[in-house]
Amino acid sequence: MSARPARIGLALAGGGPLGAVYEIGALCALEESIGGLNLSALDGYVGVSAGGFIAAGLASGMSPRALCAAFIETGEARPDAIDASLFVRPAWREFAYRVAALPGLAAQAAYEAVFGRRSALAAAERLGRALPTGVFSNAPLEEAMRRLLSGQGRTNDFRKLERRLVLVATDLDSGEAAPFGMPGWDHVPISRAIAASAALPGLYPPVPIGGRWYVDGALKKTLHASVLLSMSPDLVICLNPLVPFDASHSRHRVLSAGEGRIPRLVEGGLPVVMSQTFRSLIHSRLELGLKSYRTSHPQTDVLLFEPDHRDPEMFLSNIFSYSQRQHLAEHAYQRTRADLRSRRSELRHVLARHGLALEDAVLDDPKRSLTRRRRAPVRNRSALVLRRLDEVLDDLDRALALWERARQAAPR
Questions:
Q1: How many angstroms separate the Cα of 170 from the Cα of each of 47, 132, 191?
Q2: CB 408: neighbour CB atoms within 10 A?
Q3: For the chain, how far is it from start to end, CA to CA, in angstroms?
Q4: Tens of pLDDT along 271-318?
Q5: Whose C-alpha in 49, 97, 133, 139 is 20 to 30 A from the C-alpha of 311?
Q6: pLDDT at 1 exceeding the cut of 50
Q7: pTM (2 decimals)?
Q8: In terms of DSSP H, where are the helices of 300-376?
């Protein structure tokens, strides 16, 4: 009697449009480079924020390449193409609602200030209620996802999926996680749950569902992989698009910032400092979560893929930019292939336990490309040789570290 197939899950973190672009490029590289891995036929998916778009597409049967055609290669007239402008449609309804409330709020603030019930500053705080809760509307994107998931062979209903899909949002009034797709949470349309999970406060208004209001699921956790671990899988593959930049150990010690150069992050001003702060906060939560997963579920292998901390291109790219999606998706595709080569020895051992294997011929093919646009030829062959040598040395370092840990753990 043959052994049962391995149970495999996929957990996708958020990161704005840039996060979705990175995950599509990385997923294409993973599926092509790992033999036996079918990312549209796994046992479970969990998506947070931008990762929810990708998880929903995969769970409905779309391949990573099909997602690339819908989200990245949108130049052709395709019925399932997701227009980049959908991410930045103004929230006119929200604006109108707040403007209509402004006269009443102003009158109340003036009354309280004049008659001394509150200080002028405290009374003016009431006017804060007139500020919009989001700049961009999530309605156009929700409608586009509804059309995409209602295509032939797909569904916008959690209950009709052949495999488990969980899209995590945060209940605004309680601060609790809302796992849409789990029993009791699966009556909500998938497209609506996507909009709720991706409603980043300040950019998108909270999404009303069943008399409650929901915002971005990343407010609670970065990955929410524990949802999959509760299903006792054998392997969980995790993707996290946003990482802090390690300028001190970067292969490119000087960052390029378009109009100038930033020898140190602090010289990039507030945007760069805030980006590093935000990325560091969410990544520290991710690291704590992974440590707890390995302790609470030692029988499950957890593989994390994310950008190189020394890669300035991913760090300097605006997480809400969609204009350079083809370039960034290609970059993510190639960097994930490089990561697989650098971790070849470690990954080969883990993947083999679950009936998977690295495709060395695919990984080592320098002509592989994600988008249809032909890649520019490598002019500096010595640079390519040095990069590959760097990958081999990284792989050797990891292999030696694994051997040392195994030696120390062996009974004496």
A1: 13, 19, 16
A2: 8
A3: 36
A4: 889 989 999 999 999 999 999 998 899 999 999 999 998 888 888 887
A5: 49
A6: no
A7: 0.85
A8: 312-316, 325-342, 344-352, 360-363
